[in-house]
Amino acid sequence: MNDRQIRRMMQQAGIKSSEMDGVIQVDFILSDKKISVKGPQVTILDIQGTRTYQVVGGQEVTGDIGEAPRAKDADINEDDLNLVMQKTGVDREKGIEALRKNGYKPAEAIIALMTGK
Predict the structure, then answer these.
(1) 18, exposed or middle or buried, with CB in 10 Å at 0-12, 13-18, 19+?
(2) What is the pTM of this model?
(3) 3-64 belongs to which CATH class?
(4) CATH topology for 78-115?
(5) Measured between alpha carbons, how far is 28 from 61 in angstroms, rounded to an integer?
């Protein structure tokens, strides 16, 4: 079968295929490690409304997953800080201060900021 016949069969089966341009890197984040594929060719397959991404080639780099990313202050968890800022509308510095005052517990920091404590 040539390429044209394959495309025709895919079209008859309701499968649409398109290339994703400009992809620099694709990351797969697992519970214990991260796999990065650099410079891959990515194809999107749309099969009866279900979208599937096919990642081919590129350089694979694996690494361990550490703790959640930290803010500039090494003792502040970036995810916790973002949660506090999002829920209370405070700026970064006030969020950091609230987390420190409340034992680095985001729920307590949010309550303290909302009640003015």
Answers:
(1) exposed
(2) 0.47
(3) mainly beta
(4) Helicase, Ruva Protein; domain 3 (1.10.8)
(5) 10
